[in-house]
Amino acid sequence: MLAKLGVASRWAAAIGGGYALAALSSVVLALTLTLPREEAVMAASMPAFLIFAAAVVWAFCARTAWLAWAGIGGPVLILAAAVWWLKPVVIAAAV
Q: What is the pLDDT of residues 28-47, one digit of tens each?
């Protein structure tokens, strides 16, 4: 039963955490690129597919489910902080 919980936790980390990691990395990259807005969004969304795939691989290659969550959750928190920090700059520049 405990092994099934570990696999379910890895699936949650792979799908939910991978999606969050890919989405936040796309947002951070789009906010930092010095391209027109539409081109920045398109260019930033392309690496998100690779990032999601890498997160899925990481979730199942990590030694434990805790390490899988830490390896995905840590970067998610860092990227979320970067989005929070960059967002006021973009809003001020748009006005």
A: 999 999 899 889 999 999 99
Q: CA-CA distances (angstroms) from residue 26 to 21, 49, 60, 82, 94?
A: 8, 10, 23, 12, 19
Question: What pTM does this model have?
Answer: 0.85
Burial class (CB in 10 A: 0-12, 13-18, 19+), 48: buried
pLDDT score, position 95: 52
With bands split at pLDDT 50, 70 and 90, how would you rate the model's confidence at 2?
Answer: confident
Produce one character per residue of 54-83: b if its CB has 16 or more CB atoms within 10 Å, e if not.
Answer: ebbebbeebeebeebbebbeebbeebeebb
Report the distance separating Cα 31 and Cα 90, nearest Å: 7
Which structure tokens are listed for 5? 């919980």
Which of 89, 72, 95, 92 shows the shortest CA–CA distance to 30?
Answer: 89
